Amino acid sequence: MIALGEFNSLEILRDTSVGLFLGDGEGNEILLPNKYVPETYEIGDALNVFCYLDHAERPVATNIEPEILVNEFQLLKVAEVNEFGAFMDWGLEKHLLVPFREQRSKMVEGQWYVVHCYLDEKTNRLVASNKLDRFLSNEELTVSEGDEVDLVFTRLTDLGWEVIIDHQHKGLVYRNEIFKKVSVGTYTKGIIKQIRSDNKIDVSLQPLGEKILEPAANKIYETLTAHGGFLPLHDKSDPEDIKKELQMSKKTFKKGIGTLYKARKITIENDGIHVAK
Fold first, then answer.
1. pTM here?
2. Structural domain harbouring 37
């Protein structure tokens, strides 16, 4: 079976004037147009290609990697809006359609939106949706507390940022636990901090527990040496000053300098911290 919206490993069956015909071993074939044909190849070779429908709604293969695959979420830019909907630039010649019914609010050309790519069973076309929640579920979780996960930031709320976890679940990163610049569509790694009784998930961008001490201490020491061996920060410093300089909380900073002090790498003075001589 040749899966649309995914990369497929297919065998070269024959060479034609329009390109290579590839097959899956089950009688299914797809065209790899001449512009995507590799410089050297032999009949019978396997090629890893992305498959989708071209402008004429015909299955076609390409060696270009799109910005989004089927069943994934990604931040994409609207290339065009017409009577059918919004068309997203996903790196391929044919843009990815977001029908009007799949837009949370009317999309605007040139603006960026997080969308979900899926295969429309009625039309067998790849389309996208900006109505993200209907593609997420926390009923049956595939993650556990302490797991490292992939995150996509989607919406800022009063509590913090809503995030998509591993393209499957919905989670939250609290405002006061974010120490770097993020925005809609930011992709990063995170740690499952807590799974609540109702399966709501709290996510951390920092390592948990003792795991944070060594990275925090290293970052403080590297920043300290980069500033000539001195930083005007100490345990009485304003949390915002620490966050601005080191992108970490005051609690983490105090643990980090405690680790460095015990290792005799720094001294703590009234004006700040110094590299130990």
1. 0.74
2. 7-62
